[in-house]
Design a protein that fits this description.
This protein is of the alpha+beta class and 179 residues long. The protein has three helices and ten strands, in the order ααβββββββββαβ. Keywords: Signal.
Length: 179
């Protein structure tokens, strides 16, 4: 009798587990078409778009250049053949440069960014309204706070991407900023 009771409890427990796993509000498995399933799909799409390189924006110039798409928070390093040799996500700060074509004006191996963070591989390309815009990598790996009150022009990259930018973008290299 005890064996039968234990077996019955096991079956009831298993059925309860299955019912919970297929319930529409279960956090680990949502039914297709439910709000939770749509939210998960959106999260998955956003994650994949951050991981997959995207196409070079139309109207982003010609020749050797750095392309910075402000809205996409993405940079492309473009070779003389017009093809991107490297693309990566960036973290912008509160201020953004106006769309246009600029050129690298200076480079600095390291220092302290306008937000007070230790940075390396600083590539400056524009100054507008008292804000200096440049690409850099924070030594501690942090990204700027886009909602900060202080208007800074840091466009932060990972340290690996900062090293790639440093090698690619010499003084006078064209920088095209698109919306």
């Amino acid at each position: 009798m005890a064996v039968l009771t234990v077996a019955a409890l096991g079956v009831v427990g298993f059925l309860g587990y299955q019912a919970a796993a297929t319930a529409p509000d279960h956090p680990t498995q949502a039914r297709p078409g439910s709000h939770s399933a749509q939210h998960k799909k959106k999260d998955k799409d956003q994650t994949e778009s951050k991981q997959k390189p995207t196409a070079l924006p139309a109207g982003s110039g010609t020749g050797v250049r750095v392309v910075y798409a402000v809205g996409d928070r993405r940079v492309w390093l473009v070779g003389s053949d017009g093809k991107a040799t490297h693309t990566f996500a960036v973290g912008p700060s509160p201020a953004s440069p106006d769309p246009g074509t600029y050129a690298v004006t200076s480079r600095n191996k390291g220092g302290v960014g306008s937000d007070g963070v230790q940075v390396e591989h600083v590539v400056v390309f524009h100054s507008q309204g008292g804000v200096v815009f440049g690409f850099s990598a924070a030594v501690d790996g942090s990204m700027p706070d886009p909602n900060a009150r202080k208007r800074t022009g840091a466009v932060r990259e990972s340290r690996a991407d900062g090293a790639a930018m440093w090698e690619f973008a010499q003084v006078d290299t064209k920088v095209v900023v698109v919306p």
